[in-house]
Amino acid sequence: MCITESKNYIDFSFTQDGSVGLYNRKVEDVYHSVFGALSEAEEKFAAPLNLSGNYLHKKNIKVLDICYGIGYNTKAFLKKILQTKYKGKVYIDILEYDKKLVTISPFIKDNLFKKYPEVSYILLANLLNEIIEDKAALKDILLKSDNKKFIEPFYRSLIKNKYFLRYSYNPLGQNNSFLHNIYYQCISQRNKRPLKRLKIHNFIIKPYFDDARNTIKSLNNKYDIIFLDAFTPAKLPTLWSYEFFKELYRLSDVNATLVTYSNSAAVRHAMLEAGFFAGKLFDKQHRHCGTIASPNNNLILNKLDEYDTGLIKTKAGIYYKDANLNLTAKEIIDLYNKEKSESNLQTPSQYIKKYKTEKL
Ligand SMILES: C[S@@+](CC[C@H](N)C(=O)[O-])C[C@H]1O[C@@H](n2cnc3c(N)ncnc32)[C@H](O)[C@@H]1O
């Protein structure tokens, strides 16, 4: 494990599936599962989407990736859509306040490059302006000698040698020839078949570098798919409040699917209050691995059961509040703790004990 110097609170390491994972020492939370950053995104975010049933018939698919980080959820989604014959346009809006992470995301070893080089190419083609604007992210983070092992080898020499690190002014023509080079050196060589149907212009990715609470206020799209991958609610509750879910509901198409890794009763309660129907997600071993929500109850395969809905009515279901979407994390936690200490609701342990006795 090593520490980047410019963002000296982020540690890089390899997770068990060979993809790079990050840890944030300020928040004291991981960005990704140690078992596999890519596998986690595939299992918890991409797999639960019923793409063929719900979205592939549409002319456009609109995705909102909240907390993009280094992009695993978008990457897992791109991989999944590239496996289909979808010919429409795919719009992905990415919300992330740490611009440097977005900038380095196409180059990171993500365990996808060998089989799906198109994924990082699509990101690169869409994010090149931001990458050029913020060359420091590549120089300060990726090219530090300790960090080189975390860069996809194909990109390592390109990042080091190519013009965009040497010149401050990059005319459009140079950018295009840079992309052209990558396309022919890498994608066309390796992927004759997908190349035929891969239309790069069908993928439109737009980054928003701000607190996601500010960005969503300004958005007016109706999204088909929403990924919510914020840090653990108890550590950073800012993107888990009732008011935030209200905004997400406003931005959801009638057949939208929102997926998150959180199983928390408070999060589920906030979703329900905001107007969503919510259900459970399971991994391959049939363990709970998150929550799915939609304005359309028919899209929820595994509904919340009697136990889950009971738990929501206890103190565990008290959700975070952030009336104007501008409180600090500490203010949100203080409000939450106050409400919890003043509440007469059953504690979750009382509820679980009673539930078990009654059911046995
Ligand atoms: C658990 S990580 C998500 C990992 C990410 N999905 C990936 O594939 O790398 C949480 C991310 O949310 C970002 N974040 C946290 N609070 C945010 C906020 N209020 N607005 C925008 N981004 C935020 C952090 O910078 C971090 O990258």
SSE layout and pairing:
Layout: E1 2-3, E2 10-14, E3 20-24, E4 29-30, H1 37-46, H2 51-54, E5 60-66, H3 72-82, E6 89-95, H4 99-104, H5 117-133, H6 135-142, H7 153-161, H8 163-166, H9 172-190, H10 192-197, E7 203-208, H11 212-218, E8 223-228, H12 242-250, E9 252-260, H13 265-274, E10 277-282, E11 288-294, H14 306-312, H15 329-342, H16 348-359
Parallel strand pairs: 5-6, 5-8, 6-7, 8-9
Antiparallel strand pairs: 1-2, 2-3, 3-4, 9-11, 10-11
S-adenosylmethionine binds at residues 31, 41, 67-73, 95-98, 101, 211-213, 229-231, 238-239.
Query: Cα distance, first to last residue?
Result: 48 Å
Low-confidence runs of at least 5 consecutive residues = 1-7
* SSE string: EEEEHHEHEHHHHHHHEHEHEHEEHHH
Overall pLDDT, averaged?
89
Side-by-side strand order of the widest sheet: 7-6-5-8-9-11-10
Helix content: 40-55%
* Count of beta strands: 11
User: What summary fits the major beta sheet?
Assistant: 7 strands, mixed
Question: How many helical elements?
Answer: 16
- Rg, nearest Å: 21 Å
Structural class determined from secondary elements? alpha/beta
Bound molecules: S-adenosylmethionine
Q: Indicate how many domains the architecture comprises.
A: 2
DSSP strand content: 15-25%
What characteristic shape results from the CA principal axes?
Answer: globular
What does this structure look like?
The chain has 360 residues and is an alpha/beta fold. It folds into 2 domains: 2-214, no CATH class; 230-359, no CATH class. It is 42% helix and 17% strand. Strands 7-6-5-8-9-11-10 form a 7-stranded mixed β-sheet. A 4-stranded antiparallel β-sheet has the order 1-2-3-4, with no helix packed on it. Strand 1 and strand 2 (10-14) form a beta hairpin. Helix 1 (37-46) packs across helix 3 (72-82), helix 5 (117-133) runs antiparallel to helix 9 and helix 12 crosses helix 13 (265-274). The longest helix has 19 residues, at 172-190. The chain is globular. It starts with a strand and ends with a helix. Residues 1-7 have low confidence and may be disordered. The protein binds S-adenosylmethionine (SAM).
